[in-house]
Fold:
Amino acid sequence: MMGRNLGRLDWFGWFGWRHVLPWSVGLLGLFAVAHYVIAWAIEQEVVQSGERRVGARVKVGDTRVNLLGSRVSLHEIRVANPQSPLRNLVEADRCDVQFDAASLLRKQAVVRYGVVTGLRFGTPRETSGALAGNAADDDSALDGWLDEASTCAAQDWLDRLHQRFDRDLVEQLESIQLADELLARWPEQATGLENRVTALRDRTSAFHAKVRAAQENPLRHVEFLDKLPTEIASIAEQVTALAHDIENLPSVAEEDRRAIIAAREHDEQLLREELQFEPIDTNVLSAYLLQKQLSGPLADLVGWLRLVRRIVPANAEPAAAHHHRGRDVLFTGCQPTSDFLIRKLQLQGTAHIAGQPFELVGTLSEVTDKPARHDQPIRLRLTTRGSRPLELVATIDRTGPVARDQLLVDCGGIVLPKLQFGRSEKLRLSLAPTTASLHVSILLEGDKLSGDVQLVQREVEITPTVGQELGRRNFDGELQKALGEIDSLTTRISLAGTIDQPKCEVWSNLGPAVADAMNRALVRTTAGYTRDLLTESHDRVDERLADLDRQIADAQASLEPQLVDATDSLDQLSKKTTVERLSRDHLGRRLPAESLFR
Structure:
C-alpha cells in the first residue's frame, strides 16, 4: 500500500512540473499580453471614437487594464478644441473606470463607476489639434448677431454730439458779426475823414495863395477881394462841420453798439438751439456699450451648444453594422440597448471663471454611444468648493421624439476683473473690479434656441473716457459725478432663433443709467459751455470795440491839429479883411501926383 502511494506521488510530481508549469507560464504570459493588447485596443477605440465625435485630435498618454478587477485606467487625456485647434477643449490627468463583468459577456461595455481627476478646460496646446482634412469650425454666423445697427446708431449719435462741441460757435454769434462789420467799416470812414481834411487843407492853402496874390495887385483882383469874406465864411463853415464830425467820432458807432448789445440776447437763443441734443435710445446705448464684452462669451456659449450637438446628434443614429455573427432577437416588450454605457463618473478638477481659478467637483452620468436607445438622459452636474458657490447642471435628453438640451448655471459672489465698455474713443467706460452673480438658463429643443443669461454687478465704480472735444468742456468730470450715483448693474440677454442662426436681445440698466447720467452731464456742461461762449463773445466784442475806440482816438489826435491850423489861418485872414475895403475914390486919391489921371 505504501509503495503504491509513493508511485502516485512520483508520477504527479513528474507530470506537474513537466507539463503544468509550462502551461501555467504560457497562460500567465498570454494573460500579460492580453492586458497590453486590450489596453492598446481600448486606447485606440477611445482615440478614434473621440476624434470622430469631436472632430479634433484626442490623445491618451497611457492605458492600463486590470482584467481580474474589470478596471481600466487612462492617463494624460487631451481633447483638442475643434473651434480653436491650439487649445484643448478638455484635459484630464487620469480616468479610472470599473466595468460590469457580466455586460462584457453580452458584448456590451457598461461602466458602473469611474473617477476623473485633474480635469481642466481651455488649456493651451503646443501643436495644432486639427485633424487632417478638417478645417476649424466656422463661427461666421455669430458675427454681428448682437445688432450691429444699434452700434452704428450709437456711433452716429456720438459723432453728432462731438461735432456740436467741436465747432467754433463764437464766430457764428450775431454780436461778433456786427462788431466785425463795424470794425470793417471804420477804415472807410477814417479814409473819408482824412480825405475831407486833406481837401480842406488843400483848399486853405490855395486860398492863402490867392489872397497873397490879390494883396500884391489889388487892381487885378477886385472881384476876388469883394468875395473874400464870403469865401472865408465858406471855409470856416467847412472847418466847423469837419471839426464837429471829428469831435463826434466816438458817438458815430453808438447805434452799432446798441445793436450789438441787443444781439447778445439773440446769441443766447442761438446757443440754446445749437446745443440742443436729442436723447439717445437706451437700448441702443446698452448694445453699443456691451457688445464687445458680450460677443465673446455668448459666442463661446453657442459654440459649446453646437459642440454638444456634434458629439450627441439630435437625430437618432442608424444602427451600426454588427461585427459578430448571428443577429439579435428582441422579445416582445424589450427595447434595444446601447453597446457602451457609463453609469456614473465622479469628476474632480479646476476651471477659470472671470480669470479666477475654481476647484470643481461633480458627476457625469448615463453617458452612452446611442442615447436614443437609453431610457435616461445624460446629466452633468458640477459645483465649486470654497466661498464662491457655483453650480452647473446640464441635461442632454434623447429619450423623447425631440432632442432636448438644457443648461442651468447659478453662480454667486464671483469677482469680475476690470472691464471696458464701448469701442469708440468718443465714449468708453471703465468698470472697476466688482462682485457679481450669474444665472444662465438655456434650452435647446430640436434646433430651437431659447433662454436667458442674467448678470448682476454690485458696488460698481465707473470711470468715463470721452473725446477731446467733450474733454475740453469738462464733460468727463460732469459725467463722472453723474455715474457715481449708479450702485449696481443688471444685464439680461434673451436668446432666440436656432442653433445655427442665433438671435439675442440685450437689456441692461447700464444703457438707461448712462443715458440719464449723460443727459444730466450735458445739461451742466452745456450751461457752463454757454456761459463760456457768451463770456468769450463779450470779451471779443469788447476787444473789437476797444480797438475801434483806439483807432478813433488816433484819428482824432491826427486830424484835430490839422483843423486847428486851418482855423488859425482863417482867423488871420479874417483879421486882414477887417481893414477898410478899397473903392474908386480911394484908388483915385491914392494915385501918384505925377499921374496923368489925377
Summary: Residues 53 and 362 are 23 Å apart (CA to CA). The two ends are 221 Å apart (CA to CA). The longest strand covers residues 84-99.
